[in-house]
């Protein structure tokens, strides 16, 4: 029976129908058209490229900015028995070589790459020999020169067309302003505009915003009132622990999460929250990307996010099950001021960038003219502390060094230990006979892990140590010895960020940095901050403010945000006051004080406002200091 998009969806995902826009986007892709899809967080973007890629012969190459997201998607595809692999920093050259060969000669359907990987001549040459059926560009707002999450390598993606000119491109993002939408299509070389956009309105989300002096107290009230699980976002790692401790001390099961923690700890905390063993996870913005927990009832921000794009994505992690949920933003005037100060720190001057480059080369003991292609584990916090550099300013300098291709820096990600046997089965057996103390370890590997003769296989060293009755250090030493004997290739686990020098070290006085770009970027960032201020100060409707920012024309208030709820309450209260005024004045004319004091609803200023409105509308008449309700 011929497969269709719907049959693929049912077979692998178990759904009987597509979500809004998915089917339309898939149809365009199958027609071979370049397409841009704008779908809110949790809208099912990945299915838009996974379904058509499974329908077509060949491999889909997915460009994604986050290693953790790539690994998560690859793992989910493999659980569905769909062959998929990812190539990222931390893998050895040989490991990458084997993975690329499997994409050419094996049955791999999805290859996930970071945009930086496409700089490699090896990767580009291998892609030429692959039967590519689709380019899928995830988080496509990064393509735009003005995208909020700037990744310089995304600006090179149009070069993919040189490798396979007839293969269509599908770009996907949750957040893009009209300027960014146009820029994405221009940068990718779309022959004609082709945009599918889902409304940025999330009907089930009631956006709430409070200018609050006691943010911790208000947060606690919100959590206790809302029920269910949620996320609290804070700006730095120290705050994650302080806020989690505060919640625990007030009877709320909570834990903290940030990128500086060991990967095993992060995974354990994330799983505990996902399975509702804890109610609240307090995190930096390192948490949430790629996590599809449907029943999040609230997302609370204790600090103002850097942009409305970031806020929309983070707030959108609430209510993915379609039920009522509340993104809540708590702020003070000091937070507003700090946001503007962050802009200044995010765009350092040329002298500071030179200084960071000089310190970086000394830190890793790179000689002049050396270092090109060298990769190191890198802890930016430790580096900034050593040279007494302001952290945000230092990280910004690294970004601009990366943009001008002096270096590349990946996020921290856990990569497990891997092993591959470099001899055939007969040679391995001879080794087992000669070296009896390795026999149990080799047998355990062969029993637990498949494909170990063909490619690098992730292994659990603790599990292997337990099975053969040895310590973890003994097992690691045995792997290292097997590598020395050239029986196997062994790659130790890592969870550090990776920094790679892309060019040989130059004297810092010869460092070229595009300061014109930095000045343009700074102006754009200022506009983003002004947009946040507008969101904070709007008197109309929070949802409408977000929709208008993303270029969506709508004038229908959501009815569920803090402004709409307050306005609706005042309208209902005003109508009740009006009816009571009518009732009192139909009984007899009254003086102002008599009338206002006789009312039982609302505060005095509200009662006076309603009375003024009735006078203006001539529903109430004032004659000789007496108010009356005329009967016509």
Automatic annotation (TrEMBL):
Catalysed reactions, as listed in the record: Couples ATP hydrolysis with the unwinding of duplex DNA by translocating in the 3'-5' direction
Superkingdom: Bacteria
Domain Helicase C-terminal: from-to ranges: 215-364
SUPFAM superfamilies the UniProt entry points to: P-loop containing nucleoside triphosphate hydrolases (SSF52540)
Residue ranges occupied by any Helicase ATP-binding domain in the UniProt entry: 26-194
EC category: isomerase
GO cellular component, as recorded: bacterial nucleoid; cytoplasm; replisome
Keyword terms: ATP-binding, DNA-binding, Helicase, Hydrolase, Isomerase, Metal-binding, Nucleotide-binding
Gene3D superfamilies cross-referenced by the UniProt entry: P-loop containing nucleotide triphosphate hydrolases (3.40.50.300), Winged helix-like DNA-binding domain superfamily/Winged helix DNA-binding domain (1.10.10.10)
Entry's EC annotation: 5.6.2.4
UniProt-listed GO biological process terms: DNA recombination; DNA repair
UniProt GO MF annotations: 3'-5' DNA helicase activity; ATP binding; DNA binding; four-way junction helicase activity; hydrolase activity; metal ion binding
Keyword Nucleus tagged: no
Entry annotated with the keyword Transit peptide: no
InterPro entries xref list: DEAD/DEAH_box_helicase_dom, DNA_helicase_ATP-dep_RecQ, Helicase_ATP-bd, Helicase_C-like, P-loop_NTPase, RecQ_Zn-bd, WH-like_DNA-bd_sf
Family label: Belongs to the helicase family. RecQ subfamily.
Protein name per UniProt: ATP-dependent DNA helicase RecQ
């Amino acid at each position: 029976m011929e497969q269709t998009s719907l049959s693929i969806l049912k077979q692998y995902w178990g759904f009987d129908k597509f979500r809004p826009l998915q089917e339309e986007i898939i149809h365009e892709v199958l027609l071979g058209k370049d397409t841009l899809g704008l779908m809110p967080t949790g809208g099912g973007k990945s299915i838009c490229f996974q379904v058509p890629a499974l329908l077509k012969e060949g491999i889909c190459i997915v460009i994604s900015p986050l290693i953790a997201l790539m690994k998560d998607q690859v793992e989910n595809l493999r659980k569905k028995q769909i062959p998929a692999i990812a190539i990222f920093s931390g893998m050895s050259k040989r490991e990458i070589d084997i993975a690329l060969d499997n994409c050419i000669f094996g049955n791999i359907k999805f290859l996930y790459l970071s945009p930086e990987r496409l700089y490699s001549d090896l990767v580009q040459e291998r892609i030429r020999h692959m039967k590519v059926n689709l380019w899928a560009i995830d988080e496509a707002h990064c393509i735009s020169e003005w995208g909020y999450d700037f990744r310089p390598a995304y600006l090179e993606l149009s070069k993919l067309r040189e490798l396979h000119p007839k293969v269509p491109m599908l770009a996907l993002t949750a957040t893009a302003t009209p300027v960014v939408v146009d820029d994405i299509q221009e940068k990718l070389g779309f022959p004609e505009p082709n945009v599918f956009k889902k409304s940025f309105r999330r009907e089930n989300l009631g956006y709430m915003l409070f200018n609050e002096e006691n943010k911790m107290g208000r947060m606690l009230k919100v959590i206790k009132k809302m029920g269910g699980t949620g996320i609290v976002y804070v700006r730095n790692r120290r705050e994650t622990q302080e806020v989690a401790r505060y919640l625990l001390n007030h009877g709320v099961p909570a834990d903290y999460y940030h990128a500086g923690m060991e990967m095993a700890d992060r995974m354990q905390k994330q799983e505990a929250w996902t399975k509702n063993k804890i109610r609240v996870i307090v995190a930096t913005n390192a948490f949430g990307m790629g996590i599809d927990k449907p029943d999040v009832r609230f997302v609370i921000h204790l600090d103002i996010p850097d942009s409305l794009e970031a806020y929309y994505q983070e707030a959108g992690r609430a209510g993915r099950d379609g039920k009522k949920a509340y993104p809540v933003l708590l702020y003070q005037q000091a937070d507003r001021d700090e946001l503007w100060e962050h802009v200044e720190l995010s765009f350092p001057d040329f002298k500071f960038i030179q200084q960071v480059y000089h310190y970086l080369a000394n830190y890793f003991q790179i000689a002049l003219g050396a270092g090109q292609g060298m990769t190191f584990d890198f802890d930016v916090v430790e580096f900034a502390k050593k040279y007494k550099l302001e952290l945000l300013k230092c990280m910004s300098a690294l970004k601009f060094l990366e943009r001008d291709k002096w270096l590349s820096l990946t996020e921290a990600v856990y990569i497990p230990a891997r092993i591959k046997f470099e001899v055939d089965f007969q040679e391995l057996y001879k080794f087992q006979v000669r070296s009896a103390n390795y026999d149990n370890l080799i047998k355990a590997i062969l029993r637990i892990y498949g494909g170990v003769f063909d490619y690098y296989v992730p292994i659990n060293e603790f599990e292997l140590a337990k099975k053969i009755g040895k310590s973890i250090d003994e097992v690691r030493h045995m792997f290292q010895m097997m590598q020395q004997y050239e029986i196997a290739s062994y790659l130790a686990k890592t969870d550090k960020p990776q920094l790679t020098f892309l060019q040989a070290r130059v004297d810092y006085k010869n460092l070229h940095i595009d300061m014109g770009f930095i000045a343009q970027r700074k102006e754009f960032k200022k506009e983003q901050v002004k947009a946040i201020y507008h969101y904070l100060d709007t008197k109309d409707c929070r949802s409408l403010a977000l929709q208008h920012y993303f270029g969506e024309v709508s004038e229908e208030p959501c009815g569920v945000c803090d402004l709409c709820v307050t306005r609706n309450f005042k309208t209902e209260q005003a109508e009740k006051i009006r009816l009571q005024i009518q009732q009192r004045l139909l009984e007899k004319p009254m003086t102002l004080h008599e009338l206002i004091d006789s009312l039982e609803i609302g505060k005095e200023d509200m009662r006076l406002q309603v009375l003024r409105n009735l006078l203006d509308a001539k529903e109430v008449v004032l004659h000789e200091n007496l108010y009356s309700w005329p009967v016509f």
